[in-house]
Amino acid sequence: MSNRTEIGTGANTPSARLQHLFENHRLTPTQRRIAHCMVRRAADVPFLSSVELAELAGVSQPSVTRFAVALGFDGYPDLRRHLREVAPVEPAAAASANEYQQAVEAEIENLRHLAQLLADPAPVERAGRILAESRPLLVLGLRAAASQAYGFSYFAAKVHPDVRLLDEGGTTLADRVHAAKNAGATALLCFALPRHPKEVVEALAYAKSAGLTVVTVADSAFAPVAPYSDLLIPAAVGEGLAFDTACSPMLLGRVLLEAMCDNLPEAQARLEEFDARAVERGLFAE
User: Fold this and answer.
1) For residue 59, what is the DSSP state?
2) How many CB atoms lie within 10 A of CB 37?
3) What is the pLDDT of residues 54-110, one digit of tens each?
4) Which end of the chain has less neighbouring CB within 10 Å, N or C?
5) DSSP letter (8 states) at residue 238
6) Helices (DSSP H) in 118-236: which residue ranges?
7) Cβ distance 168 to 142 under 8 Å?
8) What is the sign of the dihedral through the CA atoms of 158, 146, 137 and 171?
């Protein structure tokens, strides 16, 4: 398989157009950080100065200039002029709601972006086939992404014969990946959310070196895990509260579950068997 990461970019949205602009460029970590910021603020970027963009991305103003030059432009003004020509959008309107409402509205917008991305179902369908064929199937998510990985694994185990959750780091993480590979695993699903633990990047690098196909749900196509992912599907997180919100990555996880079920002929029978056993055991109160 090629080392190039395939990225689901969806419909012709401002963020998708920005991602397309950055594709096929070898970006430094600082430049990926700028690209990440621009995708997240796609509606505002054509109206931001280089100083404003640098502040938002947490980099220096000269780094923004070098980034524009790396993309083939004369400088940042030339890049901004290009964005205004090819992706004209109105700057985001100032919000009058309180901070809690703003956080909810931001998540609604993230879900809209996800819906637009899924207008092209091919990446999700491909991911579903990859996940269904792996026996066992590894699911990785550490720290902030641990709940996403656990949620996927909980439901996936009802239809997939062998799901192995990796939600704890440490020196045994590579050992567990190695053991799954020896048991026949061909794929690993990773949930990667900020702040990105180095252990996740290292685990994906190890999984790739072991020959596993890596499917990743990340907050951005330019997350640190991108170079180690064969198929990356972005789902933005909300940043309006003290701690990030992750409605979009969670929903994308459920979409991937659906796509995996579509490729598991025995999925319906397994669900019916589980329901029958649940009734016998009186598992649920309703």
Assistant:
1) S
2) 21
3) 988 889 999 999 999 999 999 999 999 998 887 655 555 455 678 899 889 989 988
4) C
5) B
6) 122-133, 146-156, 173-182, 198-209
7) yes
8) negative
Question: Of how many residues is the chain composed?
Answer: 286
Structure tokens at 69: 């030059």
Q: Are 89 and 14 contacting, i.e. CB atoms less than 8 angstroms apart?
A: yes
Q: Please, what are the averages of pLDDT over each run of 10 residues along the chain (286 residues)?
A: 53 68 82 84 86 90 93 92 73 66 89 92 97 98 97 97 95 95 98 94 96 96 92 91 93 97 94 92 88
What 8-state DSSP symbol labels residue 162? -
CA distance 42 to 86: 13
Question: Edge-to-edge strand order for the sheet containing 163-166?
Answer: 6-7, 231-234, 213-218, 187-192, 137-140, 163-166
d(CA 98, CA 100): 6
Helix H or strand E encompassing 262:
helix 247-262
Which amino acid makes up residue 49?
S
CB 276 within 8 A of CB 158: no
CA–CA separation, 106 and 142 (whole Å):
24
Alpha-carbon span 51 to 248, nearest angstrom: 30
